[in-house]
């Protein structure tokens, strides 16, 4: 299964490794014209303001909107959640109000053991790095995990977003879930 990984900025290599570990084939995308060819799209963590600027310059922001309309599955992690959500920094492709940097600076990064029923019994060790959260989600949004500060994993149709970094600790269950989302469709 071909997955387009938007490789303009952020922790691209860790995402590549995690998608491959889950069984996907990664296409690194830095310019327009490659998304239609892929079955899913991943937007990695990084810095959403820079990421958006680079995507606009490359015309990939418009392609993402078209990809959603065409029914492609899209997974955004951390900054990727900011880009997919609703705020002045995002494209609003998922009906979720996002707030950036809610937990403070890089030094206030933390780990949490999350209960994510769709991934099974075993808790998921999640790393939050200058993370955003979903403050409010629309009725069509399925909340998959939350912590005290807000919703940290959610899905609406074929759009999946996580506030944490699922690519860092070698647990590929969330990427496997994303690939299953594509297969099931
Ligand atoms: N704070 C970053 C932003 O708002 C996200 C951080 C991350 O992706 N780890 O874009």
CATH top level label: Alpha Beta
Main sheet: strands, sense, barrel? 7 strands, mixed
Termini separation: 13 Å
Number of helices: 5
The CATH superfamily name is Class I glutamine amidotransferase (GATase) domain
**Which ligands does the model contain, each kind named once?**
glutamine
Task: Look at the helices and sheets and give the structural class.
Answer: alpha/beta
List the strand order in the largest sheet.
2-1-3-4-11-10-9
> Please, how many domains?
1
User: Strand tally, please?
Assistant: 11
Protein topology:
Blueprint: E1 2-6, H1 12-21, E2 25-29, E3 40-43, H2 48-58, H3 60-69, E4 73-77, H4 79-84, E5 96-99, E6 110-114, E7 124-128, E8 133-137, E9 142-147, E10 150-156, E11 159-162, H5 173-184
Parallel strand pairs: 1-2, 1-3, 3-4, 4-11
Antiparallel strand pairs: 5-8, 6-7, 9-10, 10-11
The structure holds glutamine.
Can you describe this structure?
By secondary structure, this protein is an alpha/beta fold. It has one domain: Rossmann fold. The chain has helices at 12-21, 48-58, 60-69, 79-84, 173-184, and strands at residues 2-6, 25-29, 40-43, 73-77, 96-99, 110-114, 124-128, 133-137, 142-147, 150-156, 159-162. It has a seven-stranded mixed β-sheet. Strand 1 (2-6), helix 1 (12-21) and strand 2 form a beta-alpha-beta unit. The longest helix has 12 residues, at 173-184. The model has no long low-confidence stretch (mean pLDDT 96). Bound molecules: glutamine. Residues 45-48, 78-79, 82, 100-101, 129-130, 132 line the site of glutamine (GLN).
């Amino acid at each position: 299964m071909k997955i387009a990984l938007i490789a303009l900025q952020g922790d691209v290599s860790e995402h590549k490794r995690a998608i491959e570990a889950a069984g996907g084939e990664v296409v690194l995308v830095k310019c327009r014209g490659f998304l239609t060819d892929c079955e899913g799209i991943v937007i990695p963590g990084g810095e959403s303001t820079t990421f958006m600027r680079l995507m606009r310059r490359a015309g990939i922001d418009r392609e993402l909107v078209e990809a959603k309309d065409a029914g492609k599955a899209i997974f955004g992690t951390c900054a990727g959640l900011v880009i997919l959500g609703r705020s002045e920094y995002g494209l609003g492709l998922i009906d979720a109000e996002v707030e950036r940097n809610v937990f403070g600076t890089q030094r206030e990064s933390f780990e949490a053991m999350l209960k994510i029923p769709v991934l099974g019994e075993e808790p998921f060790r999640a790393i939050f790095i200058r993370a955003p959260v979903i403050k409010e989600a629309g009725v069509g949004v399925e909340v998959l995990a939350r912590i005290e500060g807000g919703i940290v994993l959610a899905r609406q149709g074929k759009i999946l977003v996580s506030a944490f970094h699922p690519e860092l600790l070698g647990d590929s269950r969330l990427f496997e879930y994303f690939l299953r989302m594509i297969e099931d469709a």
